[in-house]
Amino acid sequence: MSGAAPVKVRLAYGTKVDYAPQIIALREGYFQEQGLEVEALALQAGRQCAEALTTGNADIAVMGDVPAILAACAALPTKIVASYGNTVHRMVAAKDSGIKQPKDLEGKRLAVQKGSSTYGGFLLWCKKNGVDINKVKVLDLDPTTMPEAMIARQIDVMVGSEPWPSNVEEKCPGAYTVAELSGLGNTFPLVVMVTAEFAEKQPEAVVGFLRAVSKAVDMLREDPDRAAAIIASVTGVPVEREAKSVRKYGWGMRMDEELRASLEQTAEFLKEQGKIKALPDFAKVLNDWFMNRL
After folding, report:
1. pTM for the full predicted model
2. Per-residue pLDDT tens digits for 33-65
3. Complete DSSP assignment for 16-56
4. Which terminus of the chain, N or C, has fewer Cβ atoms within 10 Å?
C-alpha cells in the first residue's frame, strides 16, 4: 500500500486494557505505517463498539465475544477476521457481603454491564457452578458507577474486566476477589470485526489493520512495561495497575478452531438463555483469509 493515498478507516474501540493493541497502534503510528488513515471512535465498552459497527458508523470494531455474537446476529453483514487476545473477567465482593462460594451469590445484588463479554461469561460461570441466576438480583450498571454503588450498599458484588474490578478494590476498603471466570472451556476472546462491505471493498486495508495490531501485540508480549505506560496515558489508570493487567491477559493473533469453539460455546449458551433467537452462521461470519495474508 506504500505510495498510494491513505485508506480511510473508521475504527470503534474502547479506552481500557481490553483494547490495548488498538491504543498502542494509534499512539505509535502503526496504522499510518500500513497506509491507513484511522478515524478513531473511542467508546466505553464492546457493546457500544458492536452498535457502531452494525449501524454503519464504523468499518472496523474491536470487542469481546458476546458483543461480537450480537453483532453477527444483526441485519448488517459482518465478518470476524481475527482474535488478538483473551479477556480476564473477575468478580469482586464487598467486605461484609458474606460471599465465600458460588452459591452465596443467591439472594445477593450483583452489578454487571449487560450485553458485554463479562455478562456472557458470568451466566456461563453460574451454570457451571450451580448458581440459580433467577435467585441473583442482577443490575445493569455502568462500570464507572460500581464503586459508588458498593459504598452506598446498593450492590453486594460486581463482575467485570479490567480496570473495573481493580477500581472497585481501590475505592471500596475490604473488597475482595470472589472468583475469576476461568476454567469454563472458553478463552473469552477479543476479536476484530469488520463490515462485509468494507472487507470486500478494502481487503488490503483489513490486512494492513491486522498487521498494525499484530505489531502492537508483539510490544505487549515483549515489553509490557512500555506498553502499560502507553495504555495508562490514554486510560488514566495507574501504570502499575495497567502493567499487572497487561501481563495477565493472553495476547496473541489467531484465527483457529479454539477461537471458533469458544464463540460457538458462548453463542449456544446465549441462545439457551434467550439472549439471541438463532445461532450466527459462523461459516460465513468467520473469515481466515485476512489472517492468512499476514
Report:
1. 0.83
2. 999 999 999 998 888 999 999 999 999 999 999
3. SGGGHHHHHHHHHTHHHHTTEEEEEEEESSHHHHHHHHHTT
4. C
